[in-house]
Design brief:
Helices cover 37% and strands 15% of the residues. By secondary structure, the protein is of the alpha/beta class. It has 3 domains: 10-39, no CATH class; 44-63 and 315-422, Alpha-Beta Complex (Aspartate Aminotransferase, domain 1); 84-312, Aspartate Aminotransferase, domain 2 (3-Layer(aba) Sandwich), CATH 3.40.640.
C-alpha cells in the first residue's frame, strides 16, 4: 500500500546508450514525481455526475452538453472513414487536410494570421489543448491569471503543470467582466501567462472589443503569454461580437488560441479540439506533449472534423437561435417558478444560467457552502441537475449553474419541479380584487 505521507523520494536508474560494448554508461537520479498531483482538485462536476446516476428520471441541466445532434456531414464522413479502413496511425499533429481547413477557418472567421497549417495541431478536445499548452508554457511556480469564477479544468491544468493560480474576479455588475485596473494589479514578476475565456463558462459573460484590446495592450507591455479559450465562440446572442485576441496587431505572436468542435458542432463525445501557436519552440514542446499523451487524435474522429468543415456551416446560426429561445424560456420560467430564491440576468454568450441564491434562503441543514446545499436540494428533492457555483471558485459561492442547452421539454420539466419545490416561497404578483376596486 502506498504511503502518501512519505517524504519525496528519488530513484537511481542505470541507463545504457547505444548497442555496442563501448557505448557510454551513465547512472542518473530521477526525482520522485506525481505527489504534486495530490493537490490538483477534481471538479465537483464528477461528484454531481455520481449523484445524478442515483436519481430516477433526472433533468440533466448539470452537463455542459447540447441536445442537438452532430451534422450529417460529420456522421457520413466518419462512416466513410470506417468503410475505407482509415483506422491506422496518423501524423501526430493531425490529418493534413484537417489542418488546412482549420488554418483557413481561423484566418476567415477569427481573423488570426495563420502563416501555415504547420502552426495548427488537433487535440482530444479543448481540455487536452489547454493541458498541452500549460505543459509547454509553464515552469514550476510560474503564475497564471485566471478569472474567478473559472471552468475548473483550466485551474487544474495550470496546477498540473506546477504553475500557480492567481484568480481575478469577474463582476456580475459589469456583465461578468473584469475591472481591468484590478486585473492589471494582479500581475507580478512571476506572472507568465493570462488565461481568458470568452464567452465565459460558467457565467456567460462576453468580453467587449475594448476589454480585449486593453488586455492585449497589457500582454504586450508586460511581455506575457495569452491563452485564449474560445470554446463558445459561436454562441453569442443579441447582436454581440466575439473578438479573438490573436486577430489584434502583434498578438498572434504571444497568443495561443484554443478551440473545440464540442459546442459548435455538437461533438462533445467525439473529443476533437485544436490549437494554434506561432512560436516554433513553444509549438515543438506542445507537439511533444501531444505525442506523449495521445500519439494522435482518433483517426475516424479527425475525418469527422473534415466533414464538419467541408459541409455547410448554416446550422451554427440555427443552433444559436434555438439556444437563445431556450435561454429566454428558462429565465422566464425562473421568474415564475423560483422568484425570491434564484435570480440572474440572461447571459450574452455560452449556454449557462449562473443564478444567484437569495441570501434569505435557508437550507434544510447547515452546510459550509450554500451553493452545495442548494445543489443537493435541487438534485435530491427536485431531480434537477446543476453545479454549485463555488466549484468554479470562491466568487461563485452563493450561485448555482444550470445548462439551458437541453431540450425545451426537459427545461420545462425542471422549471415545473422547481415550482413545486419552492412553492411556499414563490409569491405570485398581487392583483386587486373587483370588490376592492373603486370607480374612477
Amino acid at each position: 500500500m502506498r504511503d502518501h505521507n512519505l517524504a519525496p523520494r528519488s530513484l537511481s536508474v542505470s541507463l545504457d546508450f547505444g548497442i555496442s560494448p563501448d557505448a557510454p554508461h551513465r547512472c542518473i537520479t530521477i526525482p520522485a514525481m506525481g505527489q504534486f498531483l495530490d493537490s490538483v482538485p477534481f471538479s465537483g462536476i464528477i461528484r454531481i455526475r455520481d449523484m445524478m446516476y442515483s436519481v430516477a428520471d433526472p433533468f440533466r441541466l448539470d452537463q455542459g452538453d447540447v441536445s442537438f445532434d452532430a451534422p450529417d456531414t460529420v456522421k457520413s464522413a466518419m462512416r466513410r472513414a470506417i468503410d475505407e479502413n482509415r483506422t491506422h496511425y496518423l501524423q501526430t499533429t493531425g490529418v493534413p487536410r484537417l489542418l488546412e481547413l482549420l488554418a483557413e477557418k481561423m484566418r476567415r472567421q477569427n481573423g488570426t494570421p495563420i502563416g501555415s497549417p504547420d502552426e495548427v495541431m488537433v487535440t482530444t478536445g479543448g481540455i487536452h489543448a489547454i493541458y498541452i499548452v500549460c505543459q509547454a508554457l509553464l515552469e514550476p511556480g510560474d503564475e497564471v491569471i485566471l478569472p474567478d469564477p473559472a471552468w475548473p479544468p483550466a485551474v487544474s491544468n495550470v496546477l498540473a503543470a506546477q504553475g500557480a493560480v492567481v484568480p481575478c474576479p469577474l463582476h456580475e455588475g459589469l456583465g461578468w467582466r473584469y475591472d481591468l485596473d484590478e486585473f492589471e494589479s494582479k500581475i507580478t514578476p512571476r506572472t507568465r501567462a493570462i488565461y481568458v475565456n470568452s464567452p465565459h463558462n460558467p457565467t456567460g459573460g462576453v468580453l467587449t472589443r475594448t476589454d480585449v484590446e486593453r488586455i492585449a495592450e497589457i500582454v504586450r507591455e508586460r511581455n506575457l503569454w495569452l491563452i485564449s479559450d474560445e470554446a463558445y465562440e459561436d454562441v453569442i446572442y443579441d447582436g454581440g461580437e466575439h473578438v479573438s485576441p490573436a486577430s489584434l496587431p502583434g498578438m498572434y505572436e504571444r497568443t495561443i488560441p484554443v478551440y473545440t468542435f464540442s459546442k459548435s458542432h455538437a461533438m462533445t463525445g467525439l473529443r476533437l479540439g485544436y490549437v494554434a501557436a506561432k512560436d516554433p519552440k513553444v509549438r515543438e514542446r506542445m507537439k511533444k506533449v501531444l505525442f506523449l499523451s495521445a500519439s494522435n487524435v482518433a483517426s475516424v474522429v479527425q475525418f469527422g472534423g473534415i466533414g464538419a468543415l467541408e459541409g455547410s456551416q448554416e446550422f451554427t446560426g440555427a443552433f444559436r437561435e434555438e439556444l437563445r429561445a431556450r435561454r429566454d424560456l428558462f429565465y422566464d420560467g425562473i421568474g415564475r417558478h423560483a422568484a425570491g430564491v434564484l435570480s440572474g440576468t440572461p447571459p450574452r454568450g455560452a449556454f449557462y444560467a449562473f443564478l444567484k441564491i437569495d441570501p434569505s434562503w435557508e437550507p434544510d441543514r447547515l452546510q459550509p457552502s450554500v451553493s452545495w446545499a442548494m445543489t443537493e436540494k435541487l438534485i435530491q428533492q427536485g431531480r434537477i441537475g446543476c453545479v454549485p457555483g463555488v466549484d468554479f471558485g470562491s466568487r461563485g459561492e452563493g450561485y448555482v449553474r444550470f445548462c439551458f442547452a437541453r431540450e425545451r421539454r426537459e427545461l420545462e420539466g425542471a422549471l415545473a419541479s422547481m415550482g413545486a419545490l419552492f412553492a411556499p416561497r414563490v409569491q405570485p404578483p398581487l392583483r386587486p380584487s373587483p370588490s376592492s376596486t373603486s370607480p374612477a
